[in-house]
């Protein structure tokens, strides 16, 4: 994650085995979702700085839309 004001990297999330193709922040700002060429869709807990869930996907994502159910 980058601080847009300072242009500094403030957090690094590791887990994909290939290049990340897309990232989306949850509406509540608590999670990131990333998709990559390694076939994984990862959900990251920002506060805990860890991987919360992984889902394998076989097809290409054209659009990543995120809805959090409370």
Automatic annotation (TrEMBL):
<dbReference type="GO" id="GO:0005669">
    <property type="term" value="C:transcription factor TFIID complex"/>
</dbReference>
<feature type="repeat" description="WD">
    <location>
        <begin position="13"/>
        <end position="54"/>
    </location>
</feature>
<dbReference type="InterPro" id="IPR015943">
    <property type="entry name" value="WD40/YVTN_repeat-like_dom_sf"/>
</dbReference>
<dbReference type="InterPro" id="IPR019775">
    <property type="entry name" value="WD40_repeat_CS"/>
</dbReference>
<dbReference type="GO" id="GO:0006367">
    <property type="term" value="P:transcription initiation at RNA polymerase II promoter"/>
</dbReference>
<keyword id="KW-0677">Repeat</keyword>
<dbReference type="Pfam" id="PF00400">
    <property type="entry name" value="WD40"/>
</dbReference>
<dbReference type="InterPro" id="IPR036322">
    <property type="entry name" value="WD40_repeat_dom_sf"/>
</dbReference>
<dbReference type="InterPro" id="IPR001680">
    <property type="entry name" value="WD40_rpt"/>
</dbReference>
<protein>
    <submittedName>
        <fullName>Uncharacterized protein</fullName>
    </submittedName>
</protein>
<keyword id="KW-0853">WD repeat</keyword>
<dbReference type="GO" id="GO:0016251">
    <property type="term" value="F:RNA polymerase II general transcription initiation factor activity"/>
</dbReference>
């Amino acid at each position: 994650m980058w601080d847009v004001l300072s242009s500094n990297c403030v957090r690094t999330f590791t887990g994909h085995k290939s290049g990340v193709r897309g990232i989306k922040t949850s509406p509540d700002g608590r999670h990131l979702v990333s998709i990559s060429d390694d076939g994984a869709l990862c959900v990251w807990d920002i506060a805990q700085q860890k991987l919360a869930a992984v889902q394998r996907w076989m097809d290409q994502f054209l659009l990543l839309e995120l809805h959090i159910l409370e």
